[in-house]
């Protein structure tokens, strides 16, 4: 299966700037425009509708952070800098929160183990763990604000605090046992500038309440919380979460991951930027998001509907949530 995936998709492996740049920029523009409307309007219905549009658009723009961890550093000149400047830092999720962390999830000897920062055996937990896991996303905006506006400046004065914050509050991980190693080399310099920018912006946001009141900041945080819940919902169905911590074969890792191919028409909303093909992404981690649909079609045609490849495909979000919930109930 892996050999077929590589052989059939060699011509799709190049990241296309003509797709990446417009997609990211238009998503960000729609998101910020809708967010401004939500803040400025006095009509509650318009504010809610604009806030929903802003959350969905900014969620899509934010998920380009996933692409930044996989594309070659020379593939899209300036894209990482522009994304951080326009999306990552304003949303207080600079790429340092994912780069150097997500690739550990793809390490073949780490996936699904205690050393995987992005894996929890959710299917083996208690039923109440799922709503708790989902609702903790609501706390992300105030947590990020506190991390960059308060803890980052204090970390300059107190190095032990900085080490603690880096180890535990500097990655988009779901494994509470994960401890991040100190940054090194060129990445360390990038972390410095990203933290400086995010800290300055977080302090500015807090300071704006003195002049503008709390309403704009609370709307911003509500939009970000909605986007975070969407991402947490996507995370719940990105894998089956059935591994108990032991190392897994490549095939087992693939089958523990999930594709939601067409005709699931809502998948591009809750799993944008190619993440509806999450199992395929684990086969071909460096494949650009815009090529995953064509790669899936080729593999489906070549391997057939009864192949191992097709066993990772599911019809939609609610079916996957139901399966996960039933598994937790069996463990209760």
TrEMBL record:
Cited Pfam families: FA_desaturase
Coiled-coil spans in chain: none
GO cellular component: membrane
Record-annotated membrane-spanning stretches: 20-40, 46-66, 78-98, 132-158, 190-211
One of the protein's GO biological processes: lipid biosynthetic process
Annotated keywords: Membrane, Transmembrane, Transmembrane helix
Location of the Fatty acid desaturase domain: 49-305
Keyword check for Methyltransferase: no
Protein name from the UniProt record: Putative fatty acid desaturase
Organism from which the protein derives: Caenibius tardaugens NBRC 16725
Record lineage: Bacteria, Pseudomonadati, Pseudomonadota, Alphaproteobacteria, Sphingomonadales
């Amino acid at each position: 299966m892996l050999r077929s995936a590589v052989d059939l998709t060699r011509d799709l492996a190049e990241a296309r700037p003509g797709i990446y740049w417009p997609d990211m920029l238009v998503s960000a523009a729609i998101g910020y425009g809708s967010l401004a409307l939500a803040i400025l309007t006095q009509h509650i219905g318009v504010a809610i509708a604009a806030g929903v549009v802003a959350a969905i658009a900014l969620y899509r723009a934010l998920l380009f952070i996933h692409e930044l961890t996989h594309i070659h550093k020379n593939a899209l000149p300036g894209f990482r800098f522009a994304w951080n400047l326009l999306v990552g830092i304003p949303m207080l999720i600079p790429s340092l929160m994912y780069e150097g962390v997500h690739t550990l999830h793809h390490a073949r000897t780490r996936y699904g183990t205690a050393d995987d920062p992005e894996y929890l055996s959710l299917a083996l937990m208690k039923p109440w763990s799922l709503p708790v896991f989902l609702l903790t996303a609501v706390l992300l905006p105030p947590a990020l604000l506190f991390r960059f506006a308060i803890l980052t400046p204090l970390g300059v004065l107190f190095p032990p605090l900085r080490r603690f914050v880096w180890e535990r509050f500097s990655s988009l991980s779901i494994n509470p046992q994960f401890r991040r190693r100190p940054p090194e080399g060129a990445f360390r310099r990038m972390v410095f500038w990203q933290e400086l920018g995010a800290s300055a912006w977080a302090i500015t946001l807090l300071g704006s309440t003195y002049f503008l009141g709390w309403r704009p900041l609370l709307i911003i945080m509500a939009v970000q919380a909605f986007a975070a819940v969407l991402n947490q919902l996507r995370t719940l169905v990105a894998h089956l979460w059935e591994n108990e911590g032991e190392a897994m074969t490549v095939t087992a890792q693939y089958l523990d991951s999930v594709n939601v191919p067409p005709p699931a028409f809502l998948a591009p909303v809750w799993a944008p930027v190619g993440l509806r093909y999450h199992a395929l992404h684990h086969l071909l981690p460096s494949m650009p998001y815009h090529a995953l649909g064509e790669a899936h079609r080729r593999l489906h045609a070549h391997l057939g509907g009864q192949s191992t490849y097709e066993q990772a495909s599911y019809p939609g979000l609610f079916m996957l949530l139901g399966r996960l919930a039933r598994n937790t109930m069996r463990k209760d």
